[in-house]
Specification:
This protein is α/β, with parallel strands linked by helices. The chain contains eight helices and nine strands. It has one domain: NAD(P)-binding Rossmann-like Domain (Rossmann fold), CATH 3.40.50. Strands 3-2-1-4-5-6-9 form a seven-stranded parallel sheet, with helices on both faces. Strands 7-8 form a two-stranded parallel sheet. Helix 3 packs parallel to helix 4 and helix 4 packs parallel to helix 5. The longest helix is centred in the middle third of the chain and has 29 residues.
Amino acid sequence: MKKLENKVAIITGAAQGIGAACARRFVEEGASVILTDINEDKGLKLAADLGEKALFVYHDVSNRSDWERVLKAAEKQFGPVNILVNNAGIVIQKPFDEATDEDFHKTYMVNQFGVYLGMKICLDSMRKGKRGSIINVSSTSGFRGKAGLIAYNASKFAVRGMTKSAALEFAPYNIRVNSVHPGFIHTPMTDDFISETYKQKAINDTPLKRGGEAVEVANMIVFLASEDASFSTGSEFITDGGRLA
């Protein structure tokens, strides 16, 4: 039997990178998937490629009404949601004295507030099914500081803490909440918004001496979404090639 048979999942930031890899793996494992993103062209194409088990919905994760619309579409198309992957995120790399208030606020709204809204809006749907799994994508930047990434660091540490708090509150409903912490992963975000100097340093600092692939993170997320991880909640799962060792 497939690991996610008869499950309904919402995956944010699913048009590319880790989110797209998750969408593909979830459908392979039998789930019905709502892909959300602000990149409508890529999201629609991927959903079409994945077939009848996939639905794309345009979604700004920092907007409550967008979340409500996504959940309504999910329940109408597939039924109550069992799995939420809070994957959408942004990174703005700047030295501290060049970073602006707007940079910090924008990062917070997507990376932290978006995760909060996802858990808040989807909780009742998971209660209907009397079980659920929430996977919040943080980062190794949720464990240690990195120069030039103060807003990103702040948001990813916050996701780690929010995950633990939610895990304690959601446990009575048989809803598990865990965080995933990728290291340097080859994605459009790292390709387009991280300097070449930082990329090379990240790879040099990784014991396996390479960047990870999006599917390697997606495989961890599939595990956490499945019953294979039925006794894991409130924990951090690291996919970083040994960088934090």
